[in-house]
User: Fold Phosphopentomutase from Geosporobacter ferrireducens.
Amino acid sequence: MINRVNIFVLDSVGIGELPDSPAFGDKGVDTFGNIVKACGGIQIPNLLKLGFGNIEGVKGVDAIAAPLGAYGRAAEKSNGKDTTTGHWEIAGLHIEQPFQTYPEGFPKFIMDAFEEKIGRKTLGNIPASGTEIIEQLGPEHMKTGSPIIYTSADSVFQIAAHEEIIPIDELYQICEIAREMLMGEIQVARVIARPFIGSPGNFERTSNRRDYSVSPFEPTLLDIAKNNGLDVIAVGKIEDIFNGQGITEAVHTKDNMDGIDQTIEYLKRDSKGIIFTNLVDFDAKYGHRRDPQGYRQALEAFDLRLPELLERLKEDDIIILTADHGNDPTYKGTDHTREYIPILVYGKKVKQNVNIGTRTSFADIAATVADLLSIEKPAIGTSFKELII
Ligand SMILES: O=P(O)(O)O[C@H]1O[C@H](CO)[C@@H](O)[C@H]1O
Ligand SMILES: [Mn+2]
Ligand SMILES: [Mn+2]
Assistant:
C-alpha cells in the first residue's frame, strides 16, 4: 500500500528533443544535455544514484551499474510546450487544441476595454522577455503609472508593475480583471502578475509573482484524489497552474530552496495522498534568461539537497521527479523547448534499477499515481505501477 506520492516537477528540465520537436520550432534542443556541454560538465551525484544517467537519451552524464530508483522518460502528447499543458498532462489531461498565443500582441478592442476597467493606460503589448521589457519601459511606467503588458510564445498575458507604483494588491486586482476578460473568444492560459522593484538600470523582479490560470477543462488526478478524501498539497505555483482545482492545501514559495524546504516540511507531517511540488527557478531564472551556467548551478544546488528529501520519505511514500517541458538555455530565443521529460521514481517500496522505458504521454504519471493510491485513473494514461512495485 502506498500512502503518499510526491510529484516533484523540476520546471523545464527537459532531456532532449522529441520526434515532433521541429514542428514546434525546436531542432536539436536538449536542455540538460546542452547545459552539460556548454558548461563542460556537471556535478549531480545524487540524481545519478537514482538513475538519471541511465535514462535513454540522456547526454553528458554516465549511467551507473545499480541505480536506486526506477527511471525512464516521457514524450509530451498534448499540442504545446507550456507549463499549463505540461502539468495538466502530468495530471492526466490531454490538450488537443493548443492555447491561443498572441505574437502580434492583444487586439485593440480588448486593450481598450481593459484600460477602461482598470482606470489606467497600458504600455507594451508585445511579445518580450520579462527582464528586458521592464528595463525598456520601466522608466515610462514609473512616470505614468501605466502597467507594462507583454506576452511570449506561451499563451500568457503578463502584467509588470513596480511595487511602489502599483501596490501588489492593486496589481493582483488588475490581474483578476484581465483573467475575467480573457476567458472568451480572446483567451489566454495564464494571466501573470510580474511585480518588480528597484530603479532604472537595476530593476529586480520579486517573488510576488502570481499566475492566474484557466481551470482544467476536465477532472484531473488531483480532483479524483480530493474527491476520494485524500490530501492534495500544492507547493510552489501548482495551485496557480490548476487554478486551485482539486487542491486541499497550498503554499507558495520564494525560490527553489524554499520549495525544497516546504516540501520537506510537508513530508515530515502525516498526510495521505499527493504532494505536488514545482521548482520554477530553473525555468524562470535560467532557462528563459538563456543562462546555462546559472542553470547548471541550480541543478547542482538541487542535487545537493536531494538526499534530505529522500531521507524524509516515510515507509509508504514515493517520490516522482520529473519536468513539464524543456527550456534549453543554449537555444535561440527565450522560449520553452519541446522535449522529453525525465521520470525518476524512488521509495522504500519501489524496485531499484528498473527501466520504465519511454512513455508516450506525461499522463502515464497520473495513471501510475492513481494506481499506487488505489483511486480511479484519469481518462488517459497507462500505469507503470506493475513495473516499479
Ligand atoms: O520572460 P519572462 O517574463 O520570464 O516570461 C517567461 O515566463 C512566462 C511564464 O512561465 C513565459 O511565458 C515567458 O514569457
Ligand atoms: Mn514550466
Ligand atoms: Mn516558463
